[in-house]
Amino acid sequence: DAGVIQSPRHEVTEMGQEVTLRCKPISGHDYLFWYRQTMMRGLELLIYFNNNVPIDDSGMPEDRFSAKMPNASFSNLKIQPSEPRDSAVYFCASSLGKSIYGYTFGSGTRLTVV
Amino acid sequence: QKEVEQDPGPLSVPEGAIVSLNCTYSNSAFQYFMWYRQYSRKGPELLMYTYSSGNKEDGRFTAQVDKSSKYISLFIRDSQPSDSATYLCAMNKAAGNKLTFGGGTRVLVKP
């Protein structure tokens, strides 16, 4: 099992540009989560999906952020336009069933907006 | 006030010592508790999970939950330099799907 795969590992972009982060969950997992981690705020849940359907996007900070899951093996998180305060590590995680036993995280995408 | 509080550290201990970590929480709806370990520039990985109050042991790791005090702990016995990482507590409500994380405690085990 390859685990949760995220790409790219690092992204440096200029303010105002569109950024797309990608995630491939573990095969067979039916829940997918997007988190953001910063020193100041720790790990924050942005949005999660169940069977490809967005369930809760209350953590998405602004309309500049959007996420989709077109099929069970892929999700993306877009930021348009990007701002320096979006700089963070973005993690994708997946789980089988409800997360009472925790999730499996990917290695993250480190985003720097200059 | 955050729902889950965790001392950020760093906590520095000599190799072989016991590492003691803890989190407090404010919401009694939290029923499931986990500890994650996160190495630098890696994603968090699940170490232990527990549901009921009491102790749970797994090798060198012991997790404790005290629901009456809203307090959870993780102990690492015979600590090794490879245990140097950030440890995050996480918790979930009974019917929920969203883990709420503490801010993490950075641990450094010195050889």
List the helices and strands and how they pair.
The complex is a heterodimer of chains A (114) and B (111).
Chain A: E1 5-7, E2 10-13, E3 19-24, E4 31-38, E5 42-50, E6 53-56, E7 65-71, E8 74-79, E9 88-95, E10 104-105, E11 109-113
Parallel strand pairs in A: 2-11
Antiparallel strand pairs in A: 1-3, 3-8, 4-5, 4-9, 5-6, 7-8, 9-10, 9-11
Chain B: E1 4-6, E2 11-14, E3 19-25, E4 30-38, E5 45-50, E6 54-58, E7 61-66, E8 71-76, E9 85-93, E10 100-101, E11 105-110
Parallel strand pairs in B: 2-11
Antiparallel strand pairs in B: 1-3, 3-8, 4-5, 4-9, 6-7, 7-8, 9-10, 9-11
Q: Explain this structure to me?
A:
The complex is a heterodimer of chains A (114) and B (111). Chain A is mainly β. Chain A has no helices and 11 strands. In chain A, strands 2, 4, 5, 6, 9, 10 and 11 form a 7-stranded mixed beta sheet that branches. In chain A, strand 9 and strand 10 form a beta hairpin. In chain A, 37% of the residues are buried. In chain B, a hairpin with a 2-residue loop joins strand 6 (54-58) and strand 7. With 111 residues, chain B is mostly beta strands. The interface between A and B is medium-sized, with 23 and 24 residues.
Provide a concise account of the structure shown.
The complex is a heterodimer of chains A (114) and B (111). Chain A is 0% helix and 54% strand.
| Helix/strand order of chain B, N-terminal first | EEEEEEEEEEE
Radius of gyration of chain A: 13 Å
Which class best fits the helix and strand makeup of chain B?
A: mainly beta
Share of residues in helices of chain B: under 10%
Order of helices and strands of chain A: EEEEEEEEEEE
Radius of gyration of chain B: 13 Å
**Span between N and C termini of chain A?**
36 Å
Give the overall shape of chain B. globular
Largest interface comes to:
A-B, 23 and 24 residues
> Biggest sheet of chain A: strands, sense, closure?
7 strands, mixed
The strand count of chain B comes to: 11
> Average pLDDT across residues of chain B?
92
Percent of residues in β-strands of chain B: over 45%
